[in-house]
Design a protein that fits this description.
The protein contains 19 helices and 22 strands. By secondary structure, it is α+β, with helices and mostly antiparallel strands. The strands form 5 sheets. The protein has an 8-stranded mixed beta sheet with strand order 5-4-3-6-2-1-7-8. A 5-stranded mixed beta sheet has the order 9-10-13-11-12, sandwiched between helices. β9 and β10 form a beta hairpin.
């Protein structure tokens, strides 16, 4: 087979296949060019999901006839400088675009026209259709009143019909364009953006200031008030690396990673390493099927990151990935730890929405209660508490009897002093603590809350001197399968550092001889079986410390106050005070909220009092 030199139009079509995979890629390239030209306002108009029309207008520096002629040639760019020896520094790139492939690639697969005016008043127009160039020519007649550029792309992929078959629906392609405009808009709050779809405004972002307030205002406009109200500010600088932005509270987690926006030197990226770092930072707080919401900006010297590793410029490579990983995880964990027991405001909104009746049921007829149905003993039993966390729960149902329970211990009426989580007023269904605050009520899931407290104490002991052990008088025997048994024995040393000592006990079992002292009375065999399942499913890429924390979380679940235990007033208040003093106590180890706070005004609205 002989080797042939490809003609220029085929070369451009191949390049277009790498750079222009869908209409959103065209928008990305054109908006990048506009911002690199210093635009403060960018308008994007699309029709037919970007296939029929993409029009990008900016107020940047503009181009004259000579610039336009070069702009449509392959590998011609204003973003790089070449020295006398013909060398360019590809590791010191501070612009969004730099490859010089976008415009000729677009012109190879669509009808492309560019109208531009410089700040000195020179204006010109050039057009490209299937690689054939028309112009450049003077363009005073087109009426540009100020400097800037207007790029129109029509009939995308008409020159390559096979590519059209691989595009998604118009709605999907439009959504991809909207997503990119949002992403770049969050990185450039000082620029105004307008996106119209088939003549209707889909997004309008006003220019904001460059400071924290301006960036937060832009995030609120793009992501909505829920993110802004439930996000914490991140700001850390170390060894020339700066990590800033906003990260969502764990209790405001999402069902997918669609609300994770990551930037490197203001460049939107979809980098697997950064996504994994974000996941690792929230490891203590989220279930496996939940994802944190975050907008994070990583800024570092241009020579410390290679942005030239992907045609679409969506991936980067760091010179020191360990430093980047450590700074991001440290910044996020420090920020989350400073929030104490704070939980997302969306939890209360969801609770109020669930409690609002859809229709008022008709009143039930009043009937005389039987002597044994008096509500007074029931209320007393619901609030009555036996001392000690380890006491057995009261039965859920008791047969009628003439016995009258003693009244519960009185609870002070006014919170004194005033506590963020209030003062306990009672316990319902032996599971939920009801507390009164200065301006509302708090409902606490006692098991989820205590699980987080036990977990944090285990981590503190592990970091200090190791977790204290309690020797079992009679070892607990757990029968396991071969894989589960080997998983536990292979991690015996790690488990021992956590206070759990396991030993082989025949071919199909293990013996648990010691358990963490702070777990109290626990089913050690059930704990071992659950830990074996966790270890088999655990991500092998986790570090040793991360694996230990995973095991700690499972142990904490077994050693927590269970639903069904009746607590005294002193125990309930002690739990509330410890929650207030413990970081991350607003969510359990699985990411579920530990409490719901309802303001008095919201409760009054439920009853029509407001």
């Amino acid at each position: 087979m002989s080797i042939l030199r490809l003609p220029p139009d085929v070369i451009n079509q191949i390049a277009a296949g790498e750079v222009i995979e869908r209409p959103a890629a065209v928008v990305r390239e054109l908006v990048d060019n506009a911002l690199d030209a210093g635009a403060r306002a960018v308008r994007i108009d699309i029709a037919g999901g970007g296939v029929d029309l993409i029009r990008v207008e900016d107020d940047g520096a503009g181009m004259d006839e000579g610039d336009l002629r070069l702009a449509i040639e392959r590998h011609a760019t204003s973003k790089l400088r070449v020295d006398e020896d013909g060398r360019a520094d590809l590791l010191n790139i501070a612009t969004l675009g730099f490859r010089g492939e976008a415009l000729p690639s677009i012109g190879a697969v669509a009808r492309l026209s560019i109208l531009s005016k410089t700040q000195s008043g020179d204006s010109a127009r050039i057009a490209v259709h299937r690689g054939l160039v028309e112009g450049p020519m003077p363009a005073q007649a087109f009426g540009l009143t100020k400097s800037g550029t207007v790029v129109e792309v029509r009939d995308l992929f008409q020159a390559t019909p096979a590519r059209l078959k691989f595009l998604k629906s118009e709605r999907s392609e439009s959504a991809a364009i909207l997503d990119h405009v949002k992403r770049i808009g969050m990185a450039r709050p000082t620029a105004a953006f307008t996106l119209t779809q088939n003549g209707r405004v889909a997004l309008r972002l006003a220019a904001e200031t460059q400071d924290k307030q301006g960036r937060l205002a832009r995030l609120r406009a793009v992501l909505g008030g829920d993110f802004a109200d439930n996000a914490i500010e991140i700001e850390v600088t170390r060894d020339g690396l700066r990590v800033s932005g906003f990260a969502g509270l764990p209790t405001a987690a999402r069902a997918s990673a669609a609300h994770q926006f990551l930037y490197v030197n203001d460049r939107p990226v979809r980098d697997k390493m950064l996504t994994g770092v974000l996941r690792a930072a929230y490891q203590d707080f989220l279930a496996q099927d939940r994802y944190p919401a975050a907008v994070l900006f990583v800024d570092l010297p241009a020579e410390e990151v290679d942005v030239n590793v992907h045609p679409a410029k969506s991936e980067v490579r760091f010179r020191d990935p360990g430093l980047v990983r450590g700074v991001i995880i440290g910044a996020l964990r420090h920020g989350l730890g400073a929030q104490g027991h704070r939980a997302a405001t969306t939890i209360a909104d969801a609770a109020l929405g669930a409690m609002r009746p859809r229709a008022m049921p008709p009143p039930l007829p009043r009937a005389s209660p039987r002597p044994w149905q008096s509500p007074a003993p029931l209320a007393a039993r619901a609030l009555h508490a036996v001392p000690g966390f380890a006491e057995a729960a009261l039965p859920t149902f008791e047969a009628p009897s003439a016995r009258v329970d003693p009244a519960p211990a009185p609870i002070p009426h006014a919170p004194e002093p005033e506590f963020p989580l209030g003062v306990a007023r009672g316990q319902v269904h032996a599971t939920y603590i009801i507390a009164q605050t200065a301006d509302g009520i708090v409902i606490v899931d006692q098991h989820a809350a205590h699980e987080r407290l036990v977990y944090e104490r285990m981590k503190a002991q592990l970091a200090a001197q190791g977790i204290a052990r309690q020797t079992l008088l009679i070892p607990a025997i757990a029968e396991l399968g071969a894989a589960e048994r080997e998983a536990l024995l292979a991690r015996a040393a790690e488990l021992a550092s956590l206070g759990l000592v396991v030993e082989p006990f025949g071919p199909g079992a293990i013996a648990i001889t010691e358990i963490p002292a702070l777990l109290g009375r626990v089913d050690a065999a059930a704990l071992a079986r659950d830990l074996a399942d966790e270890l088999l499913d655990m991500d092998r890429a986790l570090s040793l410390q991360e694996r230990l924390f995973e095991v700690c979380a499972s142990m904490a679940c077994h050693g927590s106050v269970r639903a069904g235990r009746v607590l005294s007033a002193a125990e309930m208040n002690a739990l509330l005070r410890e929650m207030e003093a413990t970081p991350h106590s607003g969510q359990c180890n699985h990411g579920r909220p530990t409490y719901v706070e309802l303001k008095l005004a919201d409760v009054e609205r439920l009853f029509g009092r407001r």
